[in-house]
Write a structure and sequence with these properties.
133 residues; two-stranded parallel ribbon; 38% helix; elongated
Length: 133
């Protein structure tokens, strides 16, 4: 029933406009209206007006279906291995080769971290130089 109502509403305006004759002016006003749910398309009382209605869904206040039920991004939706890796990284402070002021072997990883940073900066410079024409 809704599709027949929408079909009738969409084509009722152009049919009335075609009855005017070839030498008359086009209608002065065209109204485009969005209707929601079971709302009816309003009719035009003015002969110089065409009303075009489109069904815009269930409700103007409802979240569209494509945005509903998005996946959660919290800790419970992450893979177990990712959570374990995060916990291990956080707990690594103070262990040997961690470059941390905490613990007895924390300072031993600072040289490795500095070398890794230097190497990454060198790669970034090469990539930046390669992009320049």
């Amino acid at each position: 029933m809704l599709t027949t109502m929408l079909f009738t509403a969409l084509f009722a305006g152009p049919i009335a406009a075609q009855d005017r004759g070839p030498l008359q002016d086009p209608p002065r006003r065209v109204r485009s209206i969005l209707v929601y749910g079971d709302e009816k398309c309003p009719t035009s009382e003015d002969p110089d007006e065409i009303v075009v209605c489109a069904n815009a869904g269930e409700s103007p206040y409802r979240i569209p279906k494509q945005f509903r039920d998005q996946p959660k991004e919290g800790a419970t939706s992450q893979a177990w291995t990712n959570r374990v890796e995060t916990i291990e990284e956080v707990n690594r402070a103070g262990l040997p080769n961690s470059c941390s002021p905490i613990g007895t072997g924390g300072q031993t990883g600072c040289t490795r971290a500095a070398i890794r940073q230097w190497y990454q900066e060198k790669l970034d410079q090469k990539a930046k130089a390669g992009r320049v024409p």
